[in-house]
Description:
Pfam families: DUF6568. The protein has 120 residues and is of the alpha/beta class.
Amino acid sequence: MPKPSPEELAAFAKHVAAFIPTTPDELLQLIDSQETAIVFLGKPSCSYCRRFVAKLFTVSLNKQLTIRFTDSSNKAALKTFREQHGIKTVPALLNISQGKIKFVCNSKLSEEEIEAFLSA
């Protein structure tokens, strides 16, 4: 996979800057506390993540959604979490509600499909 250009990295950083940074430990706390949250798992070096985050960013603006972002660059920190929940790849979009996680790992989702997933 080719290295991302500085422009691609800057665009990714701009998009995730609108999201709330969330550590793997904070993810577990969200689930344990029965909170509702939308979390994007991804990393700047992943071309699929860069493609997906632009669409998620637009959806978050249009629907005024609060999105959290967990950088998956540190695989070790997320390993147990991903194994426990069967999240094999990124980008992953998590919809956490009442201690349960629904997720989708598909960078090809359209903005409409992202909206439908989040409202299901």
